TrEMBL record:
This is protein-serine/threonine phosphatase. CDD domains: PP2Cc. Belongs to the PP2C family. Residues 23-285 form the PPM-type phosphatase domain. Residues 316-474 are annotated as: Disordered. Its cofactor is Mg(2+); Mn(2+).
Length: 474
């Protein structure tokens, strides 16, 4: 896990923006880690392609430099690709590799031992493209159901292990060369030095998988987050958490904060579970309608889920099984059913049929929960307090014209701290009104600082003379 603080840093950099199509909230928190090294970006309308939205989370390790640089520049490398107009999937794949090459040729970055995951979502002309390299993750709620938009890249996956071996590497202790717990990432150039292999064939590659979807009025929201969230909760659990909060009328930026508090470990003795930095973006689809319409859809989905759960366990009870059912009327406390013979408690609805009898849930349009999108550590939920109480802790708001984001989930081995770049963001509006600007990229910092608006146009301008300490990688 690396070094940990004696008490978690629970101040949050929380942001909000919206237009007629999206209501977006984000937040990041340092937690138990010594430093913040994640980055995230949300742009409602790309400067080079107005009307196209871009959202991304970058989970840095070994330092903040790579995640910070990606947060400022990845969308630019994607839109500059010649394939962007006709083949957005290929533009995303080549854009990831172009960014990685630019960092390798950057004197301030090429010798860094740091790296970063990257999961980016582009929505253009009612088509959604999700590009992923690493174990940060994006999920969607469509018609009240889960659609997993990315799969985690771990060295133990068969296809990943094959590429690692073909590039001259090995997997030991579930890590590439016994070193890195990811098989795809930006940066980590020490694991990309096989001169006989293409960038996408290296033992660790920045080449992303890309999922494509058609967006229609059934789409409710997206959740994009680093593994500090997914290590604690499964994709289905996160969807239900967000769905319940939206059904209560809570704004997405508030839900981001609540979700991080839900995943924060009560102490630093949980083997790393709940001890990471955390970064979350929630994108609510408005479809040109008031936010209240989404609230209504989520209320219906929650009510349907609870009704199905009640029906399922009433059927078991009718078969002679002793069952205690507690039904609630609000999404704050979902339906709970305890079966006497099994001694287990279950909530939610994972596998019930849709009203039209479809047992595959929303798999017709995408992918529902599977082995790669769940959390092994969720089995520990019954054995520990789920979150640390953080009431009274101030929530940090950023200035209206700052620009880039970073916050990390990896501890430092020798205690030295990389200099975290200044952040930029749009302020969260408590009354729900949209901010004046539409482009933002946010860097988490525990201190409130103002910075002039900066929009960089090339990668080589992002130099920093700060030194990096030796880090534990993931």
């Amino acid at each position: 896990m690396g070094q940990s603080l004696s008490e978690p840093e629970t101040s949050k950099a929380t942001e909000f923006c919206q237009n007629d199509y999206y209501k977006v909230g984000s937040s990041c928190m340092q937690g138990w880690r010594m430093h913040m090294e994640d980055s995230h970006t949300h742009i409602l309308s790309l400067p080079d392609d107005p009307g196209t939205a871009f959202f991304a989370v970058y989970d840095g390790h070994g330092g903040a430099k790579v995640a910070e640089y990606a947060g400022k520049h990845l969308h630019k490398y994607i839109t500059r690709r010649p394939e962007y107009a006709d083949d957005l999937k290929q533009a995303l794949q080549r854009g990831f590799l172009d960014l990685d090459e630019a960092m390798l040729n950057n004197e301030a970055l090429k010798e860094q031992m740091s790296g970063s995951t990257a999961v980016a979502v582009v929505i253009k002309d009612n088509r959604l493209y999700c590009a992923n390299a690493g174990d940060s993750r994006a999920i969607a709620c469509v018609n009240g159901r889960l659609d997993v938009l990315s799969f985690d890249h771990k060295p133990t996956n068969d296809s990943e292990m094959k590429r690692i071996h073909n590039a001259g590497g090995y997997v030991e202790y579930n890590r590439v060369n016994g070193y890195l717990a990811l098989s795809r990432a930006l940066g980590d150039f020490g694991l990309k030095r096989n001169q006989e292999k293409k960038p996408e064939e290296q033992m660790v590659t920045a080449y992303p998988d890309v999922e494509e979807r058609e967006v229609d009025e059934r789409w409710d929201f997206l959740v994009i987050a680093c593994d500090g969230i997914w290590d604690v909760l499964s994709s289905q659990s996160v969807l239900e958490f967000v769905q319940d909060k939206l059904a209560q009328g809570m704004y997405p930026q508030q839900i981001c904060e609540n979700l991080m508090e839900r995943c924060l470990a009560p102490d630093c003795q949980m083997g790393g579970i709940g001890g990471d930095n955390m970064t979350v973006i929630i994108v609510c689809f408005l479809h040109g309608q008031p936010f209240e319409q989404l609230i209504g859809r989520c209320k219906e989905a929650v009510a349907k889920r609870e009704a199905k759960l009640l029906k399922r366990f009433q059927a078991k009870h009718s078969n002679g099984e002793q069952t205690t059912v507690t039904a609630t009327t609000t999404a704050a406390s979902p339906l709970t059913v305890t079966t006497g013979s099994e001694g287990s408690e279950k909530t939610g609805d994972n596998d019930e049929e849709d009203d039209d009898g479809d047992k595959n849930r929303y798999a017709r349009n995408g992918r529902s929960e599977d082995d790669s999108s769940g959390s092994d550590n969720e089995l520990l939920e019954g054995a520990r307090t789920p979150s640390l109480q953080t009431q009274g802790v101030p929530t940090e708001k950023k200035d209206a014209h700052s620009e880039s984001s970073a916050s990390n989930n990896n501890g430092v081995r020798d205690g030295t701290s990389p200099t975290a770049p200044k952040t930029s963001a749009l302020p969260a509006q408590e009354d729900g009104s949209p901010p004046s600007a539409q482009e933002k990229s946010v860097k988490k910092s525990p201190e409130k600082k103002k910075s002039a608006p900066v929009v960089k146009s090339n990668a080589d301008s992002e130099e920093d003379d700060s030194s990096e300490g030796e880090m534990d990688l993931k």
